[in-house]
Amino acid sequence: MSASPEGVEAAGPGAGDLVLSFQRSFFTMGRMDSLPLPELEERLKNSDDSTLIQHILQQHEMTGAEPLDDLYDALGEVLRSEELKMCHKNYFLLSGENIRLGENVAIISEGTTGLVTWEAAQFFAEWAMENSEVFNCRSILELGSGIGLVGITICKTCTPKQYIFSDCHPNVLQQLRTNILSNGLLLDSDTWNAKDCEVEVKNKYVSEENQGPEITVIGLDWSEVTQEQVELQPDIIIATDVIYDPEVVLCLVSVLEKFLISNERKEQGSVVYLASTVRNPETYHQFKMELDKVGIGHQVIPGPTRKIFPYNRCTEIELLKIVFAHHL
Ligand SMILES: C[S@@+](CC[C@H](N)C(=O)[O-])C[C@H]1O[C@@H](n2cnc3c(N)ncnc32)[C@H](O)[C@@H]1O
Hints:
- This protein folds into two domains: about 10-105, no CATH class; about 120-325, 3-Layer(aba) Sandwich (Rossmann fold), CATH 3.40.50.150.
- The protein is an alpha/beta fold.
- A hairpin with a 5-residue loop joins strand 1 (about 85-90) and strand 2 (about 100-105).
- The model is unreliable at about 1-10 and about 190-210 (pLDDT under 50).
- The protein has ten helices and ten strands.
- Helix 1 crosses helix 2 (about 35-45) and helix 5 runs parallel beside helix 6.
- The chain is about 35% helix and about 20% strand.
- The protein has an eight-stranded mixed sheet, sandwiched between helices. Strands 1-2 form a two-stranded antiparallel ribbon.
- The site of S-adenosylmethionine has 22 residues, from helix 5.
């Protein structure tokens, strides 16, 4: 693990943590007030060598970008972030590897909330890394994937058999594909029926050396799920930050019910993991009540214990494990 980066101890005790904290906030385009700048400035003033700053630059180079110019560009992006439409965020894993995602700056843009990574996704990705055995050799369907942090993390750090990303918004699906490919993952086949343009696109990116999961991106709208999609019969269904609109609660419950019924024939049935930022307790409660009404059980399970991504941990995020009530 790289929490105490090699060589950075020379800059004094605690310098490794400071670098890590700076790097995590900086490369996820955190706001200026989330960067530990006063501590860093203090440390640099008191340090008689350049180890600390060298280390930050080295970490930057590991993201695959050009050293100095690009660092200054990135700093400029942080400062001008309100004016920019798109940015690239780097989510560092404990291994030191990073997941680089193209994201929009505005939290709602192009009529969707799906072009940014939400806190519940970072929370669930952390949980997945701690519980990787849950995903081992399983087929997984993610609903409302957005631009892919959860699935890309699982495909890179766990060993699923198959991962199906899904969303309903054509621009989100496009950015999702770009993000998957730019993180070195291979799309086995990419099929979507974009609602607005009614096109079906199939691309084969199969490599003979590919030992990883079979990865697919599909267009799946909760209000128009097809029988063909229900028959995907995933072992695990994942969704993060999808309970925010009272109007979609009913159709989301109905989608989960369809998938759970379809998989009843399997010995273990399907399991749903759903992570939500509880913004409106009434809407969230309504979702749980609707699950109860159709005999779907839910239990709250503990979230991640290690802090890996630099998101705001003051908001309440709840993780539910959802199965048919008789399986609980
Ligand atoms: C708040 S975003 C969460 C994105 C991602 N899961 C995350 O946590 O970062 C909600 C996502 O649900 C998708 N979504 C909303 N309504 C949908 C529907 N009816 N069918 C499928 N996806 C939908 C949006 O396109 C968006 O990507």
